[in-house]
Amino acid sequence: MKLLIKLVVSLLVILVISVSVIAITLVNFDPNNYKDTIASKVKEETGRNLSINGDINFTLYPWLGINIEGVQLSNTDSFDSTL
Question: What is the pTM of this model?
Answer without folding.
Answer: 0.64
